[in-house]
Amino acid sequence: MFKHIFIYRLKVLMKDKTMLFWTLIFPIALAAFFKLSFGGLVEQGTFRAIDVVVVEETRQEGFMGVMESLSSGDDQLFNMTIEDMDTAKGMLEEEMVTAIITVNETIGMTVNQSGFGQSIVKSVLDQYNNTANAVENILSTNPAAFESIAEDLRSRVTYTVEQPITDAKMDITLNYFYALIAMASLYGSFFGMEEVNNIQANLSVHAARVNMAPVHKLKIFLSSTSASLVIQYSEMLVFLAYLRFILNVDFGSQIGLILLTTFVGSLVGISLGAFVSALFKSGEDVKTGILIGTTMTGAFLSGLMFGDIKYLVQTKMPILALVNPVNVLSDAFYALYFYDDYIRYTQNIAILLSFSFVFCTATYLIIRRRKYASI
Amino acid sequence: MPVFKLCLKIFKKNIPVMSIYFGVFILVSFIMMSNASGAQLGYSDVKTDIAILAEEESVLIDGLKTSLSDVANFIEIGDERSEIQDALYFRRVGYILRIPSGFTAEFLAGDTPTLAKTVVPGSNSNIYIDMNIEQYLNTARLYANAMPDMDLGELTDEVLNDLAQDTNVSMLSGERIYGEQGMMQYYFNYLAYTFMFVLILGISTIMLVFNNLIIKRRNACSPISASKINFQFYLANMFFTLVSWLILVSLSLVFGRKELSNPNTLYFVLNSLIFAITASGISFFIGNLVKGREAINAVANVFTLGTCFISGVFVPQVLLGEGVLRIASFFPTYWYVKANAQIAGISNLSWSNLNGVGNTFLVQIGFAAAFFILAMVVGKRKQMAVEEE
User: Fold this and answer.
1) Domain ranges across chain A
2) pTM for this entry
3) What is the pairing mode between strands B115-119 and B72-74?
């Protein structure tokens, strides 16, 4: 009997095009849009050599030497050109350069807006000017220090040493994709909803007929829900493969755990749908509305639309982050990718499993032993 | 006007779904508003968010903080690995500096102790903050080595005094307001998403009803002439478009009320009106193509989200790749967003400045015409259909 119901349920589900669209095609399309439009977001805030133009009104060997050394090498700070003032102004106006550096008795700069590039240029000039001040200041009180200063200036010390927290690339777009996977997993709730609608005699004609059959209700429910789970999980695997191999979204290397997380996600999705469907006696439209509402609010709070929201919720209202299944699921992917230990990951999976357990138990308690003399 | 009334009835039925999208528009606008930074006059240093985890206190370290306060905002974060990781990943801070205990003593002894930094590698704030930290410490080293007898407090004062002297920065032209662009542009950009979705949903739902073969046959034998039916039908759709447009434009204007007096405002409104025409053309076209209510939802979602993403409604056009923008230029949303950017960039509304915007307007009108014609061609074919497809 299990096999019979399972196979026919599979066939029915595979023909439901609307369901297929929302649970697979829509996430695939969204992921494609993310990929297309997030290209620049990854690069945002990344340093690129700053284009500057130098107008040399007075020859200052020392300063030009500094500028030249900053404009060459592997980690060059500037792309420097030397022009006269009129050309330089034109270049700045056309936004071909970030700043004009004017070398006179003093060094100054001209910009047409504020920004990181301009501030970095100014820091370099400050550095040059301030060091000159300091040297002058020291020599005026202690002329004998000349040797020590010359030595110090020749061997500038680098005090900061990078202490990376993770080997993983701090790619801010990853969280959007993780939230999207979580959203797609919870769209599996539509399957769960269908399953309950199809077995509770007061919810559909189909269910009324099914209840007449001399088969144990739990058996029907488990076999048809297994079919839903198989479909939902397969769709999620297709989605994952698409993200990984076509869009090149990085998940790290623990394939087994990624597959497990996805499976747990599908389970939570389907059990949530079943729970909502069992809990509310209203029509299908209202239930769909509730599910979409919950899923989208959850997705919003886990940073699907604005990445910062996730961090905000996590730091300001940690409870809200823990009871939001979309957030916990996307956080499991995040933890798997960025953390070397499994504490946070295990915690996330435990929370997801308890969600699923609560939903399943509640659904079971609601739908069991319902008998109708007449509907 | 029975047809007109019928259309309004159908629109009314769709109000709950549409109001969700209006709600989303209001919510997003609020978020954008709270993120907006005001326009500024003249030059100022960028301040980036950093966190300092100090394991010791000393005059030298206090001096470092004072010196950094010109270029950084200090954010408090906890010293847990997960807090550091999350703060950095979500860019709450761009730079985390850890000062080990014993740093000052070693520094003064002439050694070169190190400060541990955790950063987003290769980022602007990494380079920017590094530069300022190194400058402070290297200047302090100059003093410490040249005048070993100097008191630490005095030394710090001297260093801060030297560093306080800023390079002279002049602006290319003094009058203009520089810095962040006005927010009006973004409210109007985002309007494209809600507007397009609501129009497609509303107009195609009506078309679906009128294209139903049985209803079409019933309508054909009514005592109202076909041209009258068509007229009322288009009138109702125009009415619907205008009402949605009015709601969204007034919302945008309310959100951007601080910039209401700018001469650009009128052009933003004009641009959105042109977009309204284009979007209704698209809706007619889609309405003639789709076959069921569920399909409308699917098409409306994918089409609106897709065009908005690649056209720069959600992510600014400057951040999009060239290839993406080239694809986007086949959709009117791209030109609408582009026109908004051009309008925002205009400082005085002289005729030559408006030339570029005018061309972008023309492109949009061209799109509108093309979609209306396409819709008519497809619609005509459907009308000829004698049997249900």
Assistant:
1) 2-41+176-367, 50-154
2) 0.85
3) unpaired
The CATH number of the domain holding residue B103 is 3.40.1710.10
B175 found inside a domain: no
Distances (CA, A) of A176 to A241, A312, B27, B86, B201: 17, 15, 19, 15, 27
Q: Which helix (H) or strand (E) holds B377?
A: helix B351-384
Residues B33 and B53 in one domain: no
Residues B246 and B370 occupy one common structural domain = yes
Q: Classify strands A107-111 and A99-103 as parallel, antiparallel or unpaired.
A: antiparallel
DSSP A188: T
Given CB atoms, is B146 within the 8 Å cutoff of chain A? yes
Does one domain contain both B216 and B111?
no
Per-residue DSSP letter, B260: T
Neighboring chain B residues of A32 at a CB cutoff of 8 Å: 306
pLDDT in tens, B256-296: 887 787 778 888 999 999 999 999 999 999 988 888 888 88
Q: Is residue B331 part of a domain?
A: yes
What the block records as the tokens of B83 is 């807090």
The whole-angstrom distance between A17's CA and the closest CA on chain B is 10
**Counted domains in chain B:** 2
Looking at the partner chain, which of B86, B122, B172 has a beta carbon nearest the beta carbon of A112?
Answer: B172
CATH of A50-154, one of 3.40.50, 3.30.70, 3.40.190, 3.30.450: 3.40.190
Range of the domain at B56: 48-163
Q: Do A311 and B162 touch (CB under 8 A)?
A: no
Q: Are B347 and B318 in contact (CB under 8 A)?
A: no
Reported as a single tens digit per residue, the pLDDT across A292-319 is 888 988 998 998 888 888 998 998 889 9
Overall average pLDDT of the A139-143 stretch? 84
Which residue in this structure is represented by tokens 């297709």? A238
| Closest CA–CA distance from residue A152 to any residue of chain B (Å) | 6
Domain co-membership, B318 together with B194? yes
A226, two tokens: 């297994």
Determine contact: B182 vs chain A, CB below 8 A: no
For the beta sheet containing B95-99, the strands, ordered from the edge strand earlier in sequence to the opposite edge, are A160-162, B115-119, B95-99, B48-54, B72-74
ipTM value of the model? 0.84
Could you give the strand order of the β-sheet that contains B169-171, starting from the edge strand earlier in sequence?
A: A78-82, A50-56, A99-103, A107-111, B169-171
Which two structure tokens, joined as six digits, stand for A331?
Answer: 């956080």
Question: What is the per-residue pLDDT across A69-81, written as a single tens digit (0 to 9) for each?
Answer: 888 887 788 988 8
